[in-house]
């Protein structure tokens, strides 16, 4: 009896392994939701891929609401740009829905520096002003695609690729971006490479960037 049970368990495990290799969790965006709502329960300590759902009786219209995107972000900073994010951190009702957005403000000569969203494609709509935008494909091509975009224009930054926006104009620029994740994440290249805590050893960065260690130390000191 025990032997039969053991072989049944083995067969079930083999089937599961086969199914997993076939359906190996490869999805093109956030996993699709299996219920109407899964409003993020910020108080929950349950760790899942996403955020645990609130009890439906505690869900309110406020969970799907954000106000203030008519206001410009504060661009008084070294880059001259400001991102006002509206993702699951601000709107709990976005949990499991695979979508979010942001307002980006750029002062004259403001830059949204090279960065990537590990979990989202981004689509940008120009509301005011002009931008020089671009993204670079992965190795080995590292091909740069750029364009100058004006009011009413739309530009796409494919998922995971390094991209930037620069306001070369003399007036402020404003864009709204939509992202294909409730939690797109941001990896700003300069900050992660030169501003990590603790720092990446300067001899490693010197060799990576083919410069003297003093150059690396100089850049790291700015973060
Ligand atoms: C904008 O940010 C700068 C730098 O942090 C700060 O000095 C200034 O008070 C901020 N302005 C507003 C309106 O919040």
Automatic annotation (TrEMBL):
Q: What is its main location?
A: secreted
Q: Signal peptide location in the record?
A: 1-28
Which residues of this UniProt protein bind Mn(2+)?
A: 115, 117, 122, 163
Q: Which Gene3D superfamilies match?
A: Jelly Rolls
Name of protein: Germin-like protein
The organism named in the record is Oryza punctata
Q: Which UniProt keywords apply?
A: Apoplast, Disulfide bond, Manganese, Metal-binding, Secreted, Signal
GO terms (molecular function) for this protein are: manganese ion binding
List, for all copies, the residue spans of the domain called Cupin type-1.
67-217
GO CC list: apoplast
List of residues binding oxalate: 112, 117, 122
Q: Which family does it belong to?
A: Belongs to the germin family.
Instruction: Name its cellular compartments.
Output: Secreted, Extracellular space, Apoplast
- Specify the domain of life of the species encoding this protein: Eukaryota
Report whether Acetylation shows up as a keyword of the record: no
Keyword Signal attached: yes
């Amino acid at each position: 009896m025990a032997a039969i049970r053991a072989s049944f368990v083995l067969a079930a495990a083999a089937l599961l392994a086969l199914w997993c290799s076939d359906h190996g969790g490869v999805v093109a965006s956030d996993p699709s939701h299996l219920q109407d709502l899964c409003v993020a329960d910020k108080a929950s300590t349950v760790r899942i891929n996403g955020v645990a759902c609130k009890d439906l009786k505690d869900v309110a219209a406020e969970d799907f609401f954000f106000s203030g995107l008519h206001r410009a972000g504060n661009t008084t900073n070294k880059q001259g740009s400001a991102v006002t994010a509206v993702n699951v951190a601000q709107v709990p009702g976005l949990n499991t829905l695979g979508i979010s957005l942001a307002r980006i403000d750029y002062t004259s000569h403001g830059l949204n520096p090279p960065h990537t969203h590990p979990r989202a494609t981004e689509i940008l709509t120009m509301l005011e002003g002009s931008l020089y935008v671009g993204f670079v494909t992965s190795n080995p091509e590292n091909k740069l695609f750029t364009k100058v975009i004006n009011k009413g224009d739309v530009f796409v930054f494919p998922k995971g690729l390094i991209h930037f926006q620069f306001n070369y104009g003399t007036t402020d620029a404003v864009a709204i971006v939509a992202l294909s994740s409730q939690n797109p994440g941001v990896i700003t290249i300069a900050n992660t490479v030169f501003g990590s805590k603790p720092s990446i050893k300067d001899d490693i960065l010197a060799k990576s960037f083919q410069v003297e260690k003093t150059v690396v130390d100089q850049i790291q000191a700015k973060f």
